[in-house]
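Forwarding the complex inputs:
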Amino acid sequence: MSKVLMKGNEAIGEAAIRAGALNYFAYPITPQSEVAEYLSRRMPEVGGHFLQGESEVAVSYMIFGAAGCGERVFTTSSSPGISLMSEGISYIIGAECPAVFVNIMRGGPGLGGILPSQADYLQATRGVGHGDCRLLVLAPASVQEAVEMVMTAFPLAEKYRNPVMVLGDGLIGQMMEPVEFPDNLKSAPSNKDDWATNGMDTRGRKTRNLVKSLFLDPVELNEHNLKIKRKYEQMEREEVRFEGYNQDGAYRALIVSFGTMSRVCRTAIDIMKADGLEVAMIRPQTLFPYPLQAVRDAAWKKGCQAVFSIEMNMGQMVEDVRLAVQGRCPVHWYGKCGGEVPTPEEVVETVRAVVQ
Amino acid sequence: MQNEVKITGFGGQGVMLMGKIVAHAAMEQGFEVVWIPSYGPEMRGGTAYCTVVISDRPIGSPIIQNPRHLVAMNRPSLEKFAPTVKPGGVIFVNGSLISVRCDRDDVDEFVVPIIEIAKEVGNVRTANIVAIGAFVARSGFVDFERLRESVKTEFAAKAKLIPINLKALEAGRQAAEKY
Amino acid sequence: MGKTFQKPEALSDQPTHYCPGCTHGVAHRLVAEVIDELGIRGRTVGIAPVGCAVLAYNYFTFDFQEAAHGRAPAMATGIKRSRPDLVVFTYQGDGDLASIGMGEIVHAANRGEKFTTVFINNAVYGMTGGQMAPTTLPDQRTTTSPFGRNVDEVGMPIRVSELLASLQTPAYISRQTVILPKYIVKAKKAIKKAFTYQLENRCYGFVELVSTCPTNWGLTPVDAVKWAQEHMLPYYPLGDLKSPE
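Prediction (whole assembly, three chains):
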């Protein structure tokens, strides 16, 4: 298939359609409203369903309803909108339904700003909702990768019966890059007859299904949470994804960075390399489960004097980097947020200030 | 080898489309490409801009503080961005609207009265295509033939606009030699 | 000898957790009878609210989802839009529907979603212990309006049926009650009508059922019925407020 030049937001919408997700509910918010605009035209063409909900809160339950009755469904939003959806996400996790949430992050807190940011790292990986909640979080660094992650998010959500979040910064949504939609990432929806409320007639069974998150019996609730915990542990075993850069030879420092920020760091690493300073990078592609072992191995490599977590926020992923490095070498943070994106030169300065 | 152009102007001058046409041509030529817009409040008035980055290898930072080239469609953007252009780059100036010059001697600054040319072509709304033709002809940013194809693709849905836009592109190319 | 009494197939054998004199049981039964009569049990999905009816799914024998407080109409929208062939209804109380879920119900009704809502109005929050609801009557005492609802401070009770009937989108909106046998036949008719409109893909259907809550009203079941007749029915008059015709 030939490449097409597409804006990230539109490519994300198209990728979901190619992945067979024909139900999309959304509420407009900058910088990702183009997804809704694109799909409001596109969904009718493919026999899908598009509805603009009255709020992000309502949208999260439209997602829940459709996911509960066994349909592939997704939404896209940006930071303040995800905060509103966090209620529904917690219920969806509790009821063990698969769904895909795309967060094209903007600056916060509060209204913050509309420009790119990575300030929802902790929200996505830790505090997405009340209760023992985790999402599988995929972090694309290009429009092509956003397409691939959206397409794989649906089978992943179904594998774990847990929502998956694609966490991109505003740049991923706003920039245009050549993309293709790989046929091999298409997947058939899993059979959900064992649990989904798709109607007894649909599944030809006489027993009814319940989709719920209420377990008033404490023993039952504990069991339920243990079951969910085991799924997260399985994710940690099976779904960790990352990419290394300039990591093969010896290096004196390690950068850990994700999303668009990692591309800036790649340029910074090229500049330093031309200057005789070898710096490696680990780019987590899954933020939960986090590539702890990969960061640890890279940080502990002989000759590595310091680790830098470079982020478009005030220091969030650095907590995971510190967990990974376990104090074996100093961990530094550098970042800016809310539309201010650290430049390659600033990254070089940050590293050079520590590693001579 | 990486190359960049920042295309700037008022919202409504078609700078996003100009960037898209160039980016599409670069993609067809086999380059890695990133097109990045400014967005938000800047969409209305002021300086809207997009940046097109092309490279023969995967593109690192998509955010470019110092582009190689600049296309300035209005005065505020020439004043704001001309100082950021790398030495040796091309600075295209929309002579129909901008009376000042950046007066750097380390860049190739050239001024084209695109509105007058577009009127001669037959439609003042093709001024941005004139500009893109002139810029690409002068800078060699992408292959000119690819640019023609890209214009055809962009207007494929409104095919009757293709001839006049190709004419505008050609007028821009000739202007690049003249000015 | 033929059977003179039979439990609807759509109703389970499980005894309910509702208090003595509570009208949820009657409302459940009416819904179950309608589902049986329409022969739609195999393609119906019910949505339980948060409130006393949070466990409603235990008493029915078809697919059920459980929503968060007030969100049932959004959930029903998600199901109905993605699976228009399923029959969907929400079962919601007044705290759920008229307070925290007011946005969802108004917008679902206004979009003309093709599902059905059964709205239990007993003028009080039941499950959380008798707090004031948007439907609590003026001067009515609750655990959070111990001196009676002060309308100067918190406004008048909301007449949800009237509010929804004011929307321009065609809908079936009806207020009925289940407090006495003489009203129940009409209530069932309204519920059946609402489901029928859904089956015909015609319009949104909303049936408010004026109900009692003896426990939280601090009355015996008999006195509660009397109180409802004297106070609820004058403020919440019965009848069809809107039909798609």
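Chain B has one domain: 2-178.
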